[in-house]
């Protein structure tokens, strides 16, 4: 009789423990959408990632334009940048270079998001369908490396279109170059000018961003997740924005050096020379010039992009489960 009572007392405790373990597993699953459920094919991930990136970039492009010109000393403050662009180029000037940018953003975001998730799935399979922090960082780094290789040519084009030559240069301040003209001028090797700086920026960005994003969502799910083990729209948006802002601030020095090195008529012949010039100009503070603007760009961009990415994957899985 006493044995029966003891088992009856232990059963609820064991049930709670099991439920807690299942809750932790489901929370980890929420941040790793493809690791235990039906996986989204790589091709579909590339498509939805590209669409998400284009929508996000269009919404924040004017801020990115101001950030680029501020970092390259075209102006001394955000308000001066806005006034000069409006006066010299009109309102359309705030979207100068958007076409070239979107041509780069679509494959960049597609590769970044799809490669990260594919690597997470592969690494999680080695860890019995769980993923460690070290493997999260490794997956993010791999995604950043692939993304930088794809996006560097488009970033050079965007930088040169968005930032006109200074007065006294060989072209008028309002001169416009097309993406095709830039490709013809630079050639294949020229399109990869500054690739080490792009890697120095994008690899750390990705290995910071993706673990922060997934762990914020996991923490939210532990506290307020629903019975299905899903994270809501606003928490996903907030997680993407927070992770984007933190990662963007951390890699701003690399972005400053990359931007100054890649602009047209750049006086620098090497990244090291460029970095030394930035240091001599104002010390550590100069390396973080434009950090606030960069955070203001990356936070909404990645919030929107990750939200769109998760929603499209969810729709894809639901649609194909109905067909099955």
From TrEMBL:
InterPro entries: MCP, MCP_dom_sf, MCP_transmembrane, Mito_Solute_Carrier. One of its GO terms (cellular component) is mitochondrial inner membrane. It is a multi-pass membrane protein. SUPFAM superfamilies: Mitochondrial carrier (SSF103506). It comes from the Eukaryota. Solcar repeats lie at residues 40-122, 131-219, 231-315. Residues 1-35 are annotated as: Disordered. It is found in: Mitochondrion inner membrane. The chain crosses the membrane at residues 42-63. Keywords: Calcium, Membrane, Mitochondrion, Mitochondrion inner membrane, Repeat, Transmembrane, Transmembrane helix, Transport. Its main location: mitochondrion. GO terms for molecular function: transmembrane transporter activity. Belongs to the mitochondrial carrier (TC 2.A.29) family. This is Mitochondrial glutamate carrier 1, putative.
């Amino acid at each position: 009789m006493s044995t029966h009572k003891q088992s009856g007392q232990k059963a609820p405790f064991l049930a709670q423990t099991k439920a807690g373990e299942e809750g932790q597993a489901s929370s980890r699953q929420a941040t790793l959408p493809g690791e235990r459920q039906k996986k989204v094919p790589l091709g579909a991930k590339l498509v939805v990632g590209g669409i998400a990136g284009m929508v996000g970039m269009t919404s924040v492009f004017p801020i990115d334009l101001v950030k680029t010109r501020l970092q390259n000393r075209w102006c001394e403050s955000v308000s001066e940048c806005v006034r000069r662009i409006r006066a010299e180029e009109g309102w359309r000037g705030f979207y100068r270079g958007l076409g070239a940018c979107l041509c780069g953003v679509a494959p960049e975001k597609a590769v970044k998001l799809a490669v990260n998730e594919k690597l997470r799935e592969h690494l999680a399979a080695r860890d019995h369908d769980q993923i460690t922090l070290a493997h999260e960082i490794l997956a993010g780094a791999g995604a950043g490396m692939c993304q930088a290789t794809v996006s560097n040519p488009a970033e050079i084009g965007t930088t040169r279109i968005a930032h006109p030559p200074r007065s006294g240069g060989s072209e008028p301040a309002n001169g416009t170059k097309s993406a095709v003209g830039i490709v013809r001028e630079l050639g294949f090797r020229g399109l990869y000018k500054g690739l080490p700086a792009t890697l120095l920026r994008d690899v750390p960005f990705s290995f910071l961003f993706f673990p922060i994003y997934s762990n914020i969502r996991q923490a939210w799910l532990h506290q307020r997740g629903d019975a299905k083990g899903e994270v809501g729209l606003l928490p996903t948006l907030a997680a993407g924005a927070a992770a984007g802002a933190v990662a963007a601030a951390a890699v701003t020095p690399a972005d400053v050096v990359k931007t100054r090195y890649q602009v047209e008529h750049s006086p620098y012949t090497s990244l090291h020379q460029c970095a030394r010039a930035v240091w001599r100009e104002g010390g550590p503070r100069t390396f973080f010039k434009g950090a606030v603007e960069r955070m203001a760009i990356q936070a909404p961009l990645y919030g929107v992009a990750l939200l769109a990415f998760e929603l499209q994957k969810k729709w894809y899985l639901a649609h194909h489960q109905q067909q099955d």
